[in-house]
Write a structure and sequence with these properties.
190 residues, seven-stranded mixed β-sheet, 6 helices
């Protein structure tokens, strides 16, 4: 499904929305920006406690889209939520449009002032699969995940009720996150 039609995307979005809302154990395969946005938006909206993200720079057409930012804001608007992010590389000061980006939304959200959002840099290091290929992933609470196995093509698998895989990703993330001492101040991008 390299170039899905609008009808294909509508059906995919409906299926994802339904299974995410019911937290159904179903493995989604997805590829490309449109699928990534649909999966992640639903992960954010349906998470209630903690989102962990491992990504490259978090500065691209997916994360900076209005839909993505709005879904993340829905999550952060919930009381006592937590967002922890590890990026391979922090964008430079001139690389981010703070008026129209995920970083700008995070900086201006009350959750950032409350200390519920933490961004750390892997200083060029990224998570790798067993074959040494870079992977990005996102977990929601203790049961939802999206694991991107080809970050250029944005091919991934996702599930809204797979505690075992999610737990394995959380253990890996938390071990690295806990060993990175310096938090990145989003004000440095403004």
């Amino acid at each position: 499904m390299n170039n899905p039609t609008q009808n294909d995307l509508t059906l995919y979005a409906e299926n994802v929305r339904d299974k995410a809302a019911r937290k159904e154990d179903y493995l989604f395969h997805n590829e490309g920006n449109a699928h990534a946005k649909i999966i992640l938006e639903n992960l954010f909206i349906n998470a209630d406690n903690h989102i962990r993200m491992a990504a490259n720079t978090l500065n691209n057409e997916v994360v900076n889209s209005r839909e993505y930012r709005d879904a993340m804001s829905v999550f952060l608007d919930k009381d006592n939520t937590r967002l922890d992010i590890i990026v391979t590389r922090i964008p430079g000061k001139g690389e981010v449009n703070m008026d129209d980006s995920l970083y700008g939304m995070l900086l201006n959200h009350r959750a950032y002032a409350d200390g519920r959002i933490t961004v750390k840099s892997g200083d060029g290091k990224s998570f790798r699969d067993k074959d040494g290929e870079r992977v990005n992933f996102c977990t929601g609470d203790d049961m939802m995940f999206r694991l991107e196995d080809n970050i250029e093509a944005r091919t991934a698998v996702a599930n809204f009720n797979d505690p075992d895989t999610t737990h394995a990703l959380i253990i890996m993330f938390d071990r690295v996150f806990g060993n990175i001492e310096k938090k990145f101040n989003l004000n440095d991008l403004a």
